[in-house]
């Protein structure tokens, strides 16, 4: 997470949209604060016999459209302002995707790499114990986020069932397939991002075959990069948290993955040039895909961005100040609340399958996902054009109209 307060950034975005369209002061005032903001202490008996207290969070932002929905992240930098910002964005993301859910987010301030599997399980179950009264399939439905896995969701589901007796398995999504998870969930965010890009590509003036730069080689960035290549585009650069590599003629992603597995990183990949993450963001390309953390494009580097368009697969990778600079430069930004909404849409599908006691094939999941994201993309493009603004503000207007209609 960058030094900027991400929640202040969300409020700056809200101020901007209120200047473009009059939603009424009362409605905007309601959206300035979450419905509920919970901080918890989770005591864990460590393997060495000592007891350590971890700080956890759940922010339930707005449930006008349905139960709160949003991931849980485990990260040493996780703090309440970050969680509030992510919960606010989730509220808008669910509205954009057109699913009957509200926005929430959770987290624990922890470096999970420093915990044993047993400590991690205790911590995950402890988070549920402290919050079980506010969670539930029709109240609040968490999911994985940074450093949380299907296994962690399975522990949480089991703990919730023990405490409440609820056997629907619908309170947590992102579970392993054999424990009620949905087919296609792992690929959903990256693939959904491609569907959105593919719908808008011609309208934002990009060629049939794009040169693509991807920041992040985790689940989202890695899946997105593969989908772009499978669909005839060229990924010329990619990065992980430590290193970045570039080859103007395109990277062989299977070989890159094998190299990362064998060496522990991307550095010195044969045929590619080593660059920094900072240099990666500034490469000339058709499409830049930030798929890592918040605040990577700020007013300090926005002027140096040479991409023709940006697809935000990370949450909040561009600060409001940078947004204005990019808009003036004519760089189209496909905003996070649209671009990465494939993940929450398939999470909703998982919840729906659990409640109906169904299991859909991957093909069925993607057949349902694509038209929903195509429809949202077209409507947001039109909304931005009508309002003579950029796509982010178009997405905000579209989302806020849906939320306001339900709150009246």
Can you describe this structure?
With 408 residues, the chain is an alpha/beta fold. 45% of the residues lie in helices and 18% in strands. It has 14 helices and 12 strands. It has helices at residues 6-20, 25-30, 80-97, 117-131, 150-164, 185-200, 219-230, 253-263, 277-281, 320-328, 336-339, 341-356, 362-386, 391-407, and strands at residues 36-45, 51-62, 68-75, 103-109, 140-144, 211-215, 234-239, 244-246, 273-275, 285-290, 307-311, 332-334. Helix 3 links the parallel strand 3 (68-75) and strand 4. Helix 6 packs across helix 7 (219-230). 50% of the residues are buried. The model has no long low-confidence stretch (mean pLDDT 96).
List keywords for this structure.
408 residues, Rossmann fold, five-stranded mixed sheet, 45% helix, 18% strand
Number of strands: 12
Strand adjacency order, main sheet: 9-8-7-6-10-11-12
Q: Compute the separation of the termini in Å.
A: 36 Å
Mean pLDDT: 96
Q: Which CATH architecture of the largest domain would you pick?
A: 3-Layer(aba) Sandwich
Structural class: alpha/beta
Q: What characteristic shape results from the CA principal axes?
A: globular
- Uncertain spans, ≥5 residues at pLDDT below 50? none
Helices and strands, in order, run as HHEEEHEHEHHEHEEHEHEEHEHHHH
- Radius of gyration, CA atoms, in whole angstroms: 20 Å
Main beta sheet: strand number and arrangement? 7 strands, mixed
CATH topology label of the largest domain: Rossmann fold
The helicity comes to 40-55%
Helices, by number, come to 14
The domain count comes to 2
CATH homologous superfamily identity of the largest domain: NAD(P)-binding Rossmann-like Domain
- CATH level 1 class label of the largest domain: Alpha Beta
Q: Kindly estimate the percentage of residues that lie in beta strands according to DSSP.
A: 15-25%
């Amino acid at each position: 997470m960058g030094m900027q307060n991400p929640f202040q950034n969300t409020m700056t975005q809200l101020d901007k949209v209120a200047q473009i369209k009059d939603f009424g002061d009362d409605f905007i005032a309601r959206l300035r604060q979450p419905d509920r903001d919970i901080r918890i202490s989770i005591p864990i008996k460590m393997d060495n016999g000592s007891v350590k207290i971890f700080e956890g969070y759940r922010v339930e932002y707005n449930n006008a459209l349905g139960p709160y929905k949003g991931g849980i992240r485990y990260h040493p930098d996780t703090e309440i302002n970050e969680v509030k910002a992510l919960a606010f964005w989730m509220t808008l993301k669910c509205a954009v995707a057109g699913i009957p859910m509200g926005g929430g987010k959770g987290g624990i301030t922890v470096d999970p790499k420093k915990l044993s599997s047993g400590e991690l399980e205790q911590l995950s179950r402890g988070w549920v114990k402290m919050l079980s009264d506010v969670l539930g399939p029709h109240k609040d439905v968490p999911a994985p986020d940074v450093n949380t896995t299907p296994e962690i969701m399975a522990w949480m589901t089991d703990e919730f069932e023990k405490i409440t007796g609820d056997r629907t398995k619908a309170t947590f999504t992102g579970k392993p397939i054999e424990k009620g998870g949905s087919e296609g969930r792992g690929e959903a965010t990256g693939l959904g991002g491609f569907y959105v890009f593919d719908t808008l590509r011609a309208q934002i003036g990009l060629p049939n075959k794009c040169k693509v730069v991807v920041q992040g080689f985790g689940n989202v960035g890695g899946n997105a990069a593969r989908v772009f290549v499978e669909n005839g585009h060229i990924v010329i650069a990619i990065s992980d948290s430590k290193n970045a590599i570039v080859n103007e003629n395109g990277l062989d992603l299977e070989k890159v993955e094998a190299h990362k597995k064998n060496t522990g990183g991307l550095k010195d990949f044969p045929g590619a040039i080593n660059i920094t993450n900072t240099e990666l963001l500034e490469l000339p390309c058709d499409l830049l895909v930030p798929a890592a953390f918040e605040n990577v494009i700020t007013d300090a580097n926005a002027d140096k961005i040479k991409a023709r368009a940006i697809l935000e697969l990370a949450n909040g990778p561009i600060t409001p100040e940078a947004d204005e600079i990019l808009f003036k430069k004519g760089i189209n930004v496909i905003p996070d609340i649209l671009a990465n909404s494939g993940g929450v849409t398939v999470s909703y599908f998982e919840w729906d399958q659990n409640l109906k006691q169904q299991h859909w094939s991957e093909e069925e999941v993607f057949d349902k996902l694509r038209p929903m994201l195509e429809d949202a993309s077209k409507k947001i493009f039109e909304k931005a054009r009508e309002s003579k603004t950029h796509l982010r503000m178009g997405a905000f207007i579209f989302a806020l109209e849906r939320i306001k209609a339900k709150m009246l």
